[in-house]
Amino acid sequence: MTIEAVIFDFGGVLTSSPFEAFARYETERGLPIDIIRRTNAANHLENAWAKFERAEVDIDTFDKLFAEESRALGAEVRGRDVLPLLQGDLRPEMVEALKRIKARFKTGCITNNLPANAIGSMTGRSLYIAEVMVLFDHVIESAKIGLRKPDPRIYRMMVETLKVDPKKCVYLDDLGVNLKPAREMGMTTIKVTSGAQAIAELEAATGLKLG
After folding, report:
1. Cα Dmax for the chain
2. Separation of CA 43 from chain center
3. For the segment 126-149, what is each residue's pLDDT rounded down to a tens digit?
4. What interhelical angle do 92-102 and 195-206 show, nearest 10?
5. How far is Cα 105 from Cα 208, in angstroms, rounded to an integer?
6. Dihedral, 48, 53, 59, 62 alpha carbons, nearest 10
7. Between the ranges 13-22, 82-91, 145-154, where is the mean pLDDT highest?
8. Cα 111 to chain centroid, rounded
9. CA 158/CA 110 separation, integer angstroms
10. Looking at residue 123, what is its pLDDT?
C-alpha cells in the first residue's frame, strides 16, 4: 500500500510525555496517583481542559474549573499548577525521522494545544519548536480553530488541506482516544509509547530507514 502522508501529534510524540511530569508532581505533593490524568479524562469532550484547548475559557476560568473537577475526584489541583508540567523535551530521534519522512512524503501536525498566551514559561521553547514546525506542510492547532481531537472534523481538515486519501496516511498519537477517528477514516495508526517503538512502526508503515 502506498503512503502519501504522515501526520503527527506533537506532545508525547515529538516530545516526551507530560505524564511523567504529572506523576512526579503528584508524588512530590502527596496527591492521589493519576489525579491529573483522571481529571483530564473525565468528561473529556467538555471538561476544563477541552474548553481551554478550544480557547473557550481564559486561564483564570480554567484554573478554577480544573480545581473543581479534580476536587470532585478526590484532591484539588489548580489548573495553573498543571500548565508548566506540559513541557516535554523534544525527542531528537523523532525529529530526525520527521526530516527523513518530509523528504519523501507530505507531512502534517494536529495538536491539541493551549492559547498562545496561556503559559508564559513556554516562550523559551518557541524557538526550538519553530524549527520543528517548519518541517510540516500543514499544522492544525486546536486553540486557533476552536476544535480539538478526537473531533473527526479536525482530521478531515488535515487530509483535505494536504489533498491526500486518508487510506494513504499514517497517523501517530500517544492517546488511543485520538487514534480512533483516524483509524475509522482508514488511516494506518501508531500509538506512540516511546521514540524507538514509534520509529520501528513508522519504518514498517513507510518502508523508509529512519534511524
Report:
1. 50
2. 18
3. 656 788 999 999 999 999 999 999
4. 20
5. 11
6. 0
7. 145-154
8. 5
9. 8
10. 46
In whole angstroms, what is the distance from residue 140 CA to residue 147 CA?
9
Once rounded to an integer, what is the mean pLDDT over residues 151-175?
Answer: 98
- In the block, which residue shows the cell 519523501? 104
Least confident of 94-98, 124-128, 163-167: 124-128
Count Cβ atoms below 10 Å from residue 46 Cβ, excluding itself.
11
Give dist(CA 211, CA 201) in Å, integer: 12
Q: Residue 181 and residue 159: Cα distance in Å, rounded?
A: 13
Cis peptide before 150 (omega within 30 of 0): yes
Provide the 8-state DSSP code for 45.
T
pLDDT of amino acid 211: 79
Assigned C-alpha cell, 150? 478526537
Residue bearing cell 482516544: 177
Residues 6+ apart with CB under 8 A from 175: 9, 12, 149
What crossing angle do the helices spanning 152-162 and 176-184 adopt, rounded to 10°?
60
pTM above 0.90, yes or no: no
C-alpha span between 165 and 146 (Å, rounded): 24
Assess contact for 8 and 109: CB atoms under 8 A: yes
Enumerate residues 6+ apart whose C-beta is below 8 A from 30.
Answer: none
Place of cell 495553573: 80
Mean pLDDT, the chain, as a whole number? 92
